[in-house]
Amino acid sequence: IIDMLDDFYLVTFSFEEDNKHALFEGPYMITTHGLIVQRQSPNFLSNVKSVRQVAVWVCIPHLQIELYNEKFFVASE
């Protein structure tokens, strides 16, 4: 694990299976903070922080069945 500054870390895996697990088996949390995992990119700058999309899991207890549709769950842009 290499500290890249600005709250970024570079992690190298010995096995491709571990790499795939880290990328695709999330989401990950550290205490109450979400951890965003992404592939290394050649022009990565740790001081430029931008996230375009984040997949989230939301639990809505007792949601009425008539509200359970795509229109209800898709955010407007």
UniProtKB/TrEMBL annotation:
InterPro entries assigned: At4g02000-like
Name of this chain's protein: Uncharacterized protein
